[in-house]
Amino acid sequence: MRYNKSEIEQFSHEALTQGQCVLRGHFPAEKLRRWNEEFQPLLASHVERERGNENRGSNRYYVTLPFVAPFADEEIFADPDVLAIVENLVGRDFVMCQLASDTPLKGSDYQELHRDAPPLFPELNAETPSFQLAVNFPLVDVTEENGPFETTYGTHLLTKEEGLRRLESGEIKLEKLMMKTGDLMIRDVRAIHRGTPNRTDEPRPMCVIGYSRRWLFRPEVSVRIPRATWENLSEKAKHLLRFNPRVETLDEIDTREVYQAFAY
Ligand SMILES: O=C(O)CCC(=O)C(=O)O
């Protein structure tokens, strides 16, 4: 591990109270550049297929990453520092439920401010501790021009209405998160955020790995695991991925995105 116990506690505390924490220069940038090369043809065929169904906003695409090399990489999805922080937030025996990407292209716009999950108990009018996390990391350096993620601090523990009210009144600010290739963010998906326009010719892919409490099922996402990949996973990785569907191979037909409603 790169961080000691007290540093892990600090990151966890920050994510618990602020809704997110950022680990700088944590993943090998060179590896993520290779991911980006492999990702480009996937993105291109996805854009081709989904034209007219741009449900995340114009020229902005959500693409599930196939769970094969180079993306099925334990150095990324089972990073010990990240998993230690995730466990502090969503408890023992949490699961990994998602490996995907969000990519604004030129012509994309500001999204509506949103959360990625509804409250667990809407009738309470109060928020619970964390139950769903996203680990985000870009495959290119994020700049002012290529669509920085905008987020808010502390809104994950407020109702959405109250979070929006405090934003409106200026008590809480919307902040741009500038990230370099290799940086990662661990966030409670209820932190109010939005995507911003990419004004450059180069796509800005942001990967997302979802981790949930052990009892939570998110039907809109899953990691389809080909048998050959499964057989080569460590016991720790198999435990993380235990509730995901296992398939013989990844065929074309099943790659259509089912994660359509994304903003809460
Ligand atoms: O990729 C981004 O900048 C944010 C995308 C996002 O929040 C979404 O599509 O839910």
UniProtKB/TrEMBL annotation:
Protein name: Phytanoyl-CoA dioxygenase
Molecular function (Gene Ontology), one example: 2-oxoglutarate-dependent dioxygenase activity
InterPro entries: Fungal_Metabolite_Diox, Phytyl_CoA_dOase-like
